Each structure stands twice: as C-alpha cells, then as structure tokens.
C-alpha cells in the first residue's frame, strides 16, 4: 500500500527528531551528516510510519507501530501509513525545511523541555508552517526526563505563550521521552486524529514534485544491466501509471552560457512505495519511480526540485517571476530585519525547487525577480522567500505568482 500522506517533522537541532523518527519507524535512513558537509541541499531524512490499532486495548494504549499489540499480544489493524519527512534542524538547512513543508499534509514540531522556548529554529520553523499554510500541527515537548515537574510546567507555559496567535495555538502538546519511546502511543493516536487524510480531488493532470533522486547502480555495472534514473517525491495532483510517459521539467541544461534548459520525456518503468511495487500511484506519501533516463542525471539528487507531469501539460520553465509579496508578520527573537530590498539576492522555494534570484523591481507589494536557474511555476502558486541574514538564509515571507 502507498503511504497515504506526508508529515514533516521540524524543530531545533538536538531536540529529538531523529530519536522520534527511530521510535516511529524502526528503520532510519540518516543522510544528515552528508548534508552538512555539502551545505544547502534539499536532501532530507525520511521513514515510512505504519500506525496500528489494537481492537482489545483502550485509549492511547491501543496505538502502536506493530502488527502485534505490544500490550496484549492481539493482532492489530493497520489504520494509517504515512511518510515522515525529517527536515534537519540545522540553521543552514532552512531551505530543506521549507521544501519538506511544501509537500506535507501536517507537521510535528519538536521542542525540548530543557531549553528556553523558543530556540531560534523553533521560531523559524513555526514561521515556515505559517507561510506555507500547514494547518494540522502536533507539538512534542520532549526530554521531560531531564527536567523536574516544576521546570516542565514552566517550559509548557513558555510553549503555550510562543504558540499564541499562530496556527499552532490550539495544537496538542505531548510530553515525551523520545529516546526511550515514552508516550509514542499517545503521539500515534494524536497524529492519527489531528492530522487527518486530506481530501484528494481527482484531476486529469499529473503533478509530482521531485524531492530525491538516485543512481541505484553499483559502480562497475555492465552497460546492458544498468538501471535507469530513479526519482522520488510526492504526487500533488493526479496519478501515475506504470509504463506511462512522463515529462520532467525544467529538465536538462542545454546551453550552459545562457542557462537554458530543455524538458525530458521518459517512461515510468516501475513505481515503488517503501518496499512495495505498485502499478499506479496517486497523491500521498513519498514514492519512487524508475525511469529509462541516464542514471547519471539522477545521481546525488541531481533532479531534485524538478516537476513531473504528463507530456505537454507542464507550464514552461521561467527565469523571471512577478509576484505579490507578503512579509512575515512575526518578528524573530533576534530582531533580524526580514524585509526585502531592491537588488538584494534572495532564495525562492517553490514546491521542492530552490533557486537563487535577484529583486529587479519593487512597487508596493509587487516584486519582480530574475532567477539564476529556471523553475516551473503555475499562476497563483506560493513561493517562500528567504533572504540573507548574516551568513545564512532566513525566511522573509512569501510571494503569490501573478
Ligand atoms: P535531532 O537533532 O532533533 O534529530 O535530535 P536527536 O534525536 O539526534 O537527539 C539529540 C540527543 O538527545 C541524542 O543524544 C538523543 O539520544 C537525546 N535525546 C532525544 N530525546 C531525548 C529525551 O527525551 N530525553 C533525553 N534525556 N535525551 C533525549
Ligand atoms: Mg536529527
């Protein structure tokens, strides 16, 4: 079965995201150390999570990630399958958090009880959820084992105060000890209830955002035995069928000097979700497509940020954007100036695509930007805009494409 949805996990570095992912999935693909070496990339940690419910147990105890209920040993029913996207909390990887949040159906915000709230990335991550309109949020108050009850209460009040006036104002706050798996059942129950399956409208067009891409061949594989490029991501609209032709845009660079790209047409050889092969897939969690493309194209996330559609149905890639801009309403604790200036370099995130641009005109809330790399955008779509603050990028606000 295909994962039914994506849930992004955000939070300040060291607050327990990796521990929570491990507890929820048992399987963990840690790509973070590589990411930190490479600087800003959109590569993120991920895991598929299965929520099981026991028919004999009551309350949160009925929820687990195991087919056999860990409390009473009864068989449990699979009630939800989702892809957990772990956006690294490191401050230089804000754009990764933005990309992951742009394909998500809900969020888990992790806050550690042993540090004052909010820590810098906690505040920024909440801004990301606000800007990208992520409504279904569950908050974890982690590491309660290392603070006393009074400190935990004080921290809880800080969290409440921090969330006031935001989308997460009424979000449930779950106390946890992630590295011991304590309260994982409560987390599962809460995620199941508070992050509902979104309604998916059937449409004729296909849109998939590429969030990962790989060359799955071992070095030295004979030419005839080579597997084509594999692309991973989420379908936002429509469906994909095994054997179908797809177009990937902006595609490959054909003129380095002019920075011109040409879309690629290829065929879907097979579709994988987690360990399963499926013959067709629709919107929901992460999936991976094997294609007939040169695997070199997909190596090291080479196709990340591109968009997949049926041939001839994607808007052309553009190198100039006009949009209505809205500044973030909440200031950061460090009082960074987040407003944009003419001629300033900015980072734009649209879906999983990230590109650098320069503001060439500003009239009231209307800005025009030239891009270093072309991107595929649809009218009215939302662009998250980050600006340079010190030696890193901070989310400044968003634009709506004119
Ligand atoms: P991340 O940076 O958000 O992914 O955080 P990690 O999951 O890597 O956790 C950072 C450190 O905190 C690790 O050494 C964990 O073992 C530890 N840790 C995570 N959760 C808890 C908790 O609830 N209690 C305690 N005492 N330590 C924790
Ligand atoms: Mg981590």
Second rung of CATH, namely the architecture of the largest domain:
3-Layer(aba) Sandwich
Order of helices and strands: EHHEEEHEHEHEHEEEEEEEEHEEEEEEE
Q: Name the CATH superfamily assignment of the largest domain.
A: P-loop containing nucleotide triphosphate hydrolases
Question: What is the tally of helical segments?
Answer: 7
| Major sheet: arrangement of strands | 3-2-4-1-5-6-7
Strand content: 35-45%
Radius of gyration: 21 Å
Determine the mean pLDDT. Answer: 90
CATH topology value of the largest domain: Rossmann fold
In total, the number of domains comes to: 3
Classify the secondary structure makeup into a structural class.
alpha+beta
| Ions and ligands | guanosine-5'-diphosphate, magnesium ion
Helical content stands at: 10-25%
Instruction: State the end-to-end CA separation.
Output: 38 Å
Low-confidence stretches are 27-42
Gross morphology is globular
- Give the oligomer, counting copies of the same chain as homo and different chains as hetero: single chain
- The CATH C-level name of the largest domain is Alpha Beta
């Amino acid at each position: 079965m295909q994962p039914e949805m994506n849930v992004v996990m955000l939070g300040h570095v060291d607050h327990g995201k990796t521990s929570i992912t491990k507890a929820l999935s048992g399987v963990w693909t840690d790509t973070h150390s590589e990411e930190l070496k490479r600087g800003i990339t959109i590569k993120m940690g991920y895991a598929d999570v299965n929520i099981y419910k026991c028919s004999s147990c009551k309350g949160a105890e009925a929820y687990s990630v195991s087919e056999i209920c860990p409390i009473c040993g009864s068989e449990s029913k699979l009630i939800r399958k989702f892809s957990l996207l772990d956006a690294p909390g490191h401050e230089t990887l804000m754009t990764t958090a933005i990309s992951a949040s742009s394909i998500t159906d809900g969020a888990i915000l992790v806050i550690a009880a042993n540090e004052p709230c909010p820590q810098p990335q906690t505040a920024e991550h909440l801004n990301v959820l606000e800007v990208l309109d992520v409504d279904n949020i569950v908050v974890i108050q982690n590491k309660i084992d290392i603070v006393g009850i009074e400190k935990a209460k004080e921290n809880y009040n800080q969290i409440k105060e921090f969330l006031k006036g935001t989308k997460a104002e009424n979000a449930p706050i779950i106390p946890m000890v992630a590295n011991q798996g304590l309260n994982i059942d409560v987390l599962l129950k809460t995620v199941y209830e508070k992050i509902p399956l979104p309604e998916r409208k059937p449409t004729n067009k296909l849109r998939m955002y590429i969030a990962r891409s790989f060359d799955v061949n071992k070095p030295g594989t004979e030419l005839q035995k080579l597997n084509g490029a594999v692309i991973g991501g989420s379908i936002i609209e429509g469906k994909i069928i095994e054997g179908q032709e797809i177009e990937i845009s902006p595609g490959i660079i054909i003129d380095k000097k002019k920075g011109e790209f040409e879309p690629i047409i290829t065929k879907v050889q097979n579709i994988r979700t987690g360990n399963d092969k499926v013959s067709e897939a629709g919107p929901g969690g992460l999936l991976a497509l094997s294609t007939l493309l040169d695997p070199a194209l997909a190596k090291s996330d080479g196709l990340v940020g591109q968009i997949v559609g049926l041939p001839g149905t994607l808007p052309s890639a553009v190198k100039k954007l006009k949009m209505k801009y809205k500044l973030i309403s909440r200031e950061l604790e460090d009082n960074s100036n987040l407003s944009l200036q003419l001629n300033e370099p900015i980072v734009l995130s649209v879906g999983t695509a990230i590109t650098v641009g320069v503001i060439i005109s500003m009239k009231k809330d209307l800005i025009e930007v030239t891009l270093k790399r072309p991107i595929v955008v649809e009218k009215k779509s939302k662009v998250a805009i980050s600006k340079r603050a010190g030696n890193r990028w901070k989310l400044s606000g968003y634009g709506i494409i004119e």
